[in-house]
Structure formats: structure tokens, C-alpha cells
Design a protein that fits this description.
alpha/beta, 11% strand
């Protein structure tokens, strides 16, 4: 069965989000002398991620604007009733630290180069186009992808089949002609498999909780394994890479 396109997740698949988030936030808080106030770097980071998840969910559900969720994250994180201007200024200062830490994983460009002539490429993320399009441009790889689709604009998030089917429709391909590569074994791996795509889980070592049972995706530990996988008939009779 021929795979004609590879669709990619962004954060912690192409882009080292976890490291950038840690370096950006902790660097900014250290500069402001606030790390001790939170009890240390790990405590501050855990609270920031909890606040981010909570307010991003409200934005994704249409309960807040993109700018509003940023402001509310800052207010809840600091525990202060800041004005919009004050919250915007705080976030912009944090953003400079965060963006300074942006980087692709080292296996990304070799994999994209290896598949450039043989496969089409697109992005499907649970973020927003505003965030991910800008991020891909800043990282110098936006031109590698035909389209960037995100949950905030689609109105449906991974692992729902509708998200994966939307990107297949945008490419004009059937699900069985598309591979999806993501770092989460359930949201990306099981979601893509259930939607009928060739599902590839890039296991970058994160301690994700799983629903149980066999992983629904082909597991790889480096994107160097991806070209051979998508060029092979991996669904019927080929050696399994299930983890």
C-alpha cells in the first residue's frame, strides 16, 4: 500500500517544545528573581503548564480569544489581577526568552530531506495556525509543508478522527495513503490509527500515560527510521515496530 504524504505533529515531534518551554520560563523567572517564590524551577514549570493547559482548553472551546487566553494564563500564574496591558507586557517578555530557546530536533531536517522528493508533507496540530505557522517560519521549515491545519481553526482536536480526516481531505488523499507522525502514543498514535492513517509514534522518551493495551502506532525512536517505514508496506506482512 503506497503512502503518498506524511503529516506531522509539531510540538515535541519537529520542535523541541519541552526544552524550550523549560528554558524560556525558568530563564525569565530567574531574571525576575521569581523562581524561589514558586519553590524552584520544577514547581514553577508544573504550575505554568497546568495554567497553560487549562486556559488553552477554554480558547479551543471558543470561550476566550487567543490574546485573552495569554492574558489569563499570566494572571493565574502570577495570582495577580493585571490589566490587559500589564499581562501583555509580561507575556511578551516571557516570549522573548521562550523563542530564544526554539530549535528543531536534530533528526528533523535529515528526515525531511530524505522524503522531500518522494512524499508530500503537511502539519496537523492541536494548537492554532497563528502559533504553529509562525513557529515553523521562525524555524525555517514552513515551506516544507503544503498546508498547516490546527484544532483551533478546525473546531476538532486530535485524537478525534475528524481532525485526521480533515488533513487527508485538504491533501486530496484517502487516509490509507497518508502517514501521521506524532510524539503522543494515544492522541497522535491511536488517534491516527483509528482514523485509518499509517500511524507512526516518535518516542522521544516522554512519560505519557497510555490507555492500556498494545500501542496502536508503529514506534520509532528516531526520525532516521521514518523513510524506510513509510516506503514499506508496513500494514500487511512487514516486520512490526509496535512498542
Amino acid at each position: 500500500m503506497t503512502i503518498r504524504a506524511v503529516v506531522w505533529d509539531v510540538d515535541d515531534t519537529l520542535f523541541d517544545y519541552t526544552s524550550a518551554d523549560r528554558e524560556g520560563l525558568c530563564g525569565y523567572l530567574a531574571e525576575q528573581g521569581l523562581l524561589a517564590w514558586y519553590g524552584g524551577a520544577e514547581e514553577a514549570l508544573a504550575w505554568w503548564r497546568e495554567v497553560t493547559e487549562q486556559h488553552w482548553a477554554r480558547y479551543a472551546a471558543g470561550e476566550n480569544t487567543f490574546e485573552g487566553q495569554r492574558r489569563d494564563r499570566v494572571r493565574y500564574f502570577l495570582g495577580e489581577p493585571l490589566s490587559d496591558a500589564e499581562a501583555d507586557a509580561w507575556y511578551e517578555r516571557y516570549l522573548r526568552h521562550y523563542q530564544a530557546a526554539w530549535r528543531l530536533f536534530p533528526d528533523v531536517l535529515p528526515a525531511l530531506d530524505a522524503l522531500a522528493a518522494s512524499h508530500r508533507h503537511a502539519v496537523l496540530s492541536n494548537s492554532s495556525v497563528t502559533v504553529q505557522d509562525g513557529k515553523l517560519r521562525a524555524l525555517g521549515v514552513r515551506e516544507r509543508f503544503e498546508t498547516v491545519l490546527c484544532a483551533a481553526e478546525l473546531g476538532v482536536s486530535k485524537p478525534a478522527a475528524g481532525a485526521f480526516l480533515a488533513v487527508c481531505e485538504a491533501l486530496g488523499l484517502a487516509p490509507h495513503e497518508v502517514a501521521y507522525v506524532g510524539d503522543h502514543p494515544e492522541i497522535d498514535g491511536r488517534g491516527a490509527a483509528d482514523a485509518g492513517l499509517l500511524s507512526v509514534w516518535i518516542d522521544r522518551g516522554a512519560a505519557y500515560a497510555r490507555a492500556g493495551g498494545e500501542v496502536a502506532a508503529h514506534r520509532i525512536s528516531t526520525l532516521a527510521e521514518l523513510p524506510a517505514l513509510v516506503r514499506a508496506d508496513t500494514r500487511f506482512g512487514a516486520p512490526s515496530t509496535f512498542g
